Amino acid sequence: MERGQALTLIHFPEAKEEVMKARARLVFDEVFTLQLGLVYRKRKLERTVEGITHKSPQAGSLAESFVAELPFELTGAQRRACDELASDMAKPYPMHRLIEGEVGSGKTVVAMFACLSAIGGGFQAAFMAPTEVLAEQHYLTLSELLDRAFGLSEARNLFAGVSDRPVVRLLTGSTAAAQRAVILAEVAAGDVQLLVGTHALIQDSVEFARLGVAVVDEQHRFGVHQRRSLREKGNVGEPDILVMTATPIPRTLAVTIYGDLDISILDELPKGRLPITTGVLQGDAERKIAYDKVREEVAAGHQAFIVYALREDSQRSELRSAKAEAKRLAADVFADLSVGLVHGDMKSAEKEAAMAAFRERRTDVLVATTVIEVGVDVPNATVMLIEDSERFGLAQLHQLRGRIGRGGDPSFCYLATDLDLERAGSDPAVASAAERLNAVASTTDGFKLADVDLRQRGEGQLFGARQSGMPQLKMTRVLEHREQIQMARDLAIKILDVDPELRAYEHRELQREMRARFPEDTLDVVQSG
User: Fold this and answer.
1) Is the dihedral of CA 100, 240, 139, 323 positive or negative?
2) Residues 266, 267, 269, 270: is their CA dihedral positive or negative?
3) Are 488 and 46 in contact (CB under 8 A)?
4) pLDDT digits (tens, 9 = 90+) for 157-180
């Protein structure tokens, strides 16, 4: 069916079948133009931007030796991702790869592989996280991984002649001025091999000697200009870019909104991880089930999180708040236990102290807001109670649950609500909340939950996370039109394989439509994530 005919029939149909055929044609046109632009942008990067070729024997040896000295075996998905990174980083143009990983799938180890591939070749690595809590966690985790590997005497001979452990520094907005000056000087001189931090990494005062790779964690929390600023810190060729997300995205949606990136999916959990038992609790009577489990697990030597949607009480809301509930729990329910508190409004030093006390097992129960949603890794925590759970989105609930069950012990997550879920049949808002809570309780598979999330929220809100000048899809529904999306991508690749600039006479109209759909200049500037 010709496009003109499709446009006519969609408005003035003569039969229902004609509407369906017309819509199918217009959907394909819409996703084809999108895929054409994304693939064109990716290919333009590969043809025109000079990158850094990490293919020296030392680069690969350092990263591989690190993997060999890990106290655990990589999953098949991690191994595939590392192989893809090694292949990307050996190419003459910059890597732009997305690591999409299930909660607890081991993205940090894969990111470290990329960092050491650069460091082994004499370059530096940057690792940017959206919050100070997450940056601090990454700093501790990466430092611990290096300590384990370089602390082994056998490893010193394996590490490509590198006997000194790579120097890792942490730079955030809370770093003291004197310490900041020292770190900046070390980075500029090339004495720091891995710099971990927040937005502080993209300040003008940060100058790298030889930046080879930049890792951006939870990339959807950064704007495109922030990601581009980090990329522009390179001064010996454009650095490789690795962006990561722990928010599972259906594969078709990932191809649709991240089609200009190569994608690695970590869909396996490390050996020994047990499924987290999850249940929905209604009202105070059932809330006691969670309190009893907290006591039981603490008595067994474990720890617990209790999460609240609000930081402090509000006159506009009847929801519980973390600050008020921390006082109540410490004075009443868990008076004989050590109860800590962490929330986003605390000073950085206070947050670090609260998290350190919990990591070091000086706190039994940590009351928190969503500041712990991503990156927090306390393997000894085996219980989580999420209060007012109906206030959280599916992805948030799944992310929060991922903070427990990381140590191989049976773990338990409780989704507490004061809603009467029996009203789901008569109240659309309650029905939506019930669907979310029951979905989280029924599976720990983040990709299945992502499909539910996509149906509930629609593509619009999920597309908003990209922040990269994406053309809007008006007729396409990702779950409904998976086949058309893949066909459109395959056709776009086929055409650009033979006509990279779309200069052939028969492709000029395609080029015009592509440039009309994409915001000005976005086809000529790679949007890092």
Assistant:
1) negative
2) negative
3) no
4) 444 445 568 999 999 999 999 999
List the Cα angle 445/450/456 in 5-degree steps. Answer: 135
- Assigned architecture for domain 57-266: 3-Layer(aba) Sandwich (3.40)
Task: Give me the residue spans of the domains in the chain.
Answer: 3-48+474-517, 57-266, 277-443
d(CA 275, CA 278): 9
What are the E-state strand segments in 138-177?
168-171
CA distance 371 to 364: 18
Six token digits for residue 65? 């030796």
Helix (H) or strand (E) run with residue 120 in it: helix 107-120
What's domain 277-443's superfamily in CATH? P-loop containing nucleotide triphosphate hydrolases (3.40.50.300)
What Rg value do the Cα atoms of the chain yield, rounded?
25
Calpha distance 204→93 (Å, rounded): 25
Q: Which residue has the tokens 């632009």?
A: 37
Within 69-176, where are the H helices? 76-89, 107-120, 132-150, 153-158
CATH fold match for the domains 57-266 and 277-443? yes
CA-wise closest residue to 367 among 396, 326, 401, 332: 326
Q: How are strands ordered across the β-sheet holding 168-171?
A: 168-171, 194-197, 124-128, 211-217, 240-245, 96-101, 262-266
Q: Tell me, what's the pLDDT at 157?
A: 42
Q: What pLDDT score does 6 carry?
A: 67
Q: Residues 496, 36: contact at Cβ < 8 Å? A: yes
pLDDT, tens digit (0-9, with 9 covering 90-100), for 193-209: 999 999 999 999 999 99
Is residue 266 within 8 Å of residue 77, measured between CB atoms? yes
Polymer length of the chain: 529
Confidence (pTM): 0.80
